[in-house]
Automatic annotation (TrEMBL):
PROSITE patterns in the record: PROKAR_LIPOPROTEIN (PS51257)
Cofactor(s) the protein needs: FAD
Superkingdom of this protein's organism: Bacteria
Catalytic activity: L-kynurenine + NADPH + O2 + H(+) = 3-hydroxy-L-kynurenine + NADP(+) + H2O
Organism classification: Bacteria, Bacillati, Actinomycetota, Actinomycetes, Pseudonocardiales
Coiled coil, from the record: none
Organism, scientific name: Prauserella cavernicola
Gene that encodes the chain: kmo
Single GO term (MF): kynurenine 3-monooxygenase activity
Gene3D superfamilies: FAD/NAD(P)-binding domain (3.50.50.60)
HAMAP family per record: Kynurenine_monooxygenase
Keyword annotations: FAD, Flavoprotein, Membrane, Monooxygenase, NADP, Oxidoreductase, Pyridine nucleotide biosynthesis, Transmembrane, Transmembrane helix
Protein name: Kynurenine 3-monooxygenase
Length: 449
């Protein structure tokens, strides 16, 4: 591609989900963008084994895509999931429990492969004359004071410079590493003692083996498995389990142990995964954790976005949604500062941080809900009451799930609102109980008199 000749010269490191969307947004502003990616072109090479990752794309991500006219193209590769399908423990023929995500039962999150989404965004970015994409460029060194970059490439080091450098290179960000090395930021990494492994449920006779309209969950307390549908009628399962200890990924050392474990914990899955033992042995265990780093920006010319700035655990299905929202927020900051990067980056850092901290905490809390609570009668009753309240008080009582997944209410405002709703409900319930107590006492007195 040839580049336009107006705007700043922006280098984006990482052509993943965040980097590609960012390139599209900035090109629209007339910025000249160079997008550097360490991998070869994924449209030619495909996904890594066991790292296909299905994403649940919801309103925040869709909103970001819609604003630049990409929503429909992306949704063409997605499958709507209107609720959770809970697979009970113990009985392989036990009744499945469908729990709708929204009060009206209609709203859906969308299952899409990370690879397909990335490819669609790469196509969109590369079609723009302002954007140049460089594959097989792995950031090695970077000086935040001068903007001097050094990439390893198959033909040796390449040393471009840029007026603005944006790090969209994921949870293990090299840009963040370089900011740390130059004392320009600080970071905290909190790894879970849980990892994840992918398994595949292929189509059976050309059809889905499970209901494709739901996100399937096998909550087992210490472990949990989920499955999301794919357009080829397969499901990608993700098993979450501790990485070490007596019952963990490390504890299954033979094919028989793998078979035994799945037969005990996930008996209805065993007949659906023909390559269970091979996949279990060959697919890697991925790590899960939360990245916090402050500041994200330095000197008004370097900034981290997406997972590079704030990777979170995947249990609310929000990592990519949140990363896409980062791009929308940065675009708004550029609007508000008349396109002045030196003012926009500090503004972005100041205004976005509370929201990313809020979703990081909600994502951790949702892990406990998904692996432990979703199958309990108290949880199911609670959800039914919540949906009844939403229908009775439309727009006034809205569940946390709906606010996170089906709105663009800032994450920190979601947390505040949900706390307030719970306080009011608590006060209401206390009031009702108090009233019942008073009525009871009066009735007793009246009977005695
Ligand atoms: P990445 O996707 O990691 O992309 C970073 C890019 O930078 C990559 O292309 C990489 O090759 C490149 N790169 C890295 N280092 C360098 C370097 N040195 N030089 C040049 N390029 C480099 N999110 C959701 O919204 N919904 C979900 O349901 C969901 N489920 C998930 C399930 C799992 C198991 C996991 C692990 C994550 C899930 N996520 C989900 C999170 C989502 O995948 C991430 O938030 C998202 O991919 C972040 O995008 P990113 O572009 O910031 O980072």
């Amino acid at each position: 591609n040839s580049r336009g000749d107006s705007g700043a010269d922006v280098a984006i490191v990482g052509a993943g989900l965040t980097g590609c969307l960012l390139a599209c947004y900035l090109a629209r502003r007339g910025e000249r963008v160079r997008l550097f990616e360490r991998r070869a072109d994924p449209r030619l090479t495909g996904a890594e084994r066991g790292r296909s990752i299905n994403l649940a794309l919801s309103e925040r991500g869709l909103d970001a895509l819609r604003r630049i006219g990409l929503e429909h193209a992306v949704l063409a590769d997605a499958l709507p999931m209107r609720g959770r399908m809970i697979h009970p423990a113990g009985d392989p023929d036990g009744e499945l429990d469908f729990q709708p995500y929204s009060a009206d039962g209609e709203r859906a999150i969308n299952s899409i492969s990370r690879g397909a989404l990335n490819n669609a965004l790469l196509d969109a970015a590369q079609a723009l004359p302002e954007v140049e994409v460089f594959f097989e460029h792995r950031l090695d060194r970077f000086d935040p004071a001068t903007g001097a970059l050094c990439f390893d490439t198959p033909t040796g080091p390449v040393r471009p410079e840029a007026a603005v450098v944006l790090g969209a290179d994921g949870a293990g960000s090299a840009v963040r590493g370089e900011l740390l090395r130059h004392d320009a930021t600080t970071e905290t990494l909190d790894f879970l003692d849980y990892g994840y492994k992918e398994l595949t449920i292929p189509a059976v006779g050309g059809e889905f083996a499970l209901d494709p309209g739901a996100l399937h969950i096998w909550p087992r307390g210490r472990s949990m498995m989920i499955a999301l549908p794919n357009p080829d009628r397969s499901f990608t399962c993700t098993l979450f389990w501790p990485t070490s200890g007596t019952a963990s990924f490390a504890s299954l050392s033979s094919p028989a142990a793998v078979q035994r474990y799945f037969a005990e914990q996930y008996p209805d899955v065993v007949p659906l995964v023909p390559d269970l033992v091979t996949e279990y042995r060959e697919n890697p265990v991925g790590l899960l954790g939360t990245v916090q780093c402050a500041p994200w920006q330095t000197g008004g010319r370097v900034c981290l976005l997406g997972d590079a700035a704030h990777a979170i655990v995947p249990f609310y299905g929000q990592g990519a949604n949140c990363a896409f929202e980062d791009v929308v927020v940065l675009d708004a900051c550029l609007d508000r500062t008349g396109g002045d990067w030196s003012a926009a980056l500090p503004l972005f850092d100041a205004e976005r941080r509370a929201d990313t901290e809020a979703i990081a905490q909600m994502a951790l809390a949702n892990f406990v809900e998904m692996r432990d609570k979703v199958a309990s009668p108290a949880f199911k009753l609670g959800k039914r009451v919540e949906h009844a309240l939403e229908r009775a008080l439309p727009g006034r009582y809205v569940s946390r799930y709906e606010l996170v997944s089906f709105s663009t209410t800032p994450y920190s405002a979601v947390r505040r609102r949900v706390r307030l709703q719970h306080r009011l409900l608590g006060a209401g319930a206390a009031g009702v109980l108090g009233l019942l107590g008073t009525v009871g006492a009066l009735t007793t007195r009246w009977r005695r008199s």
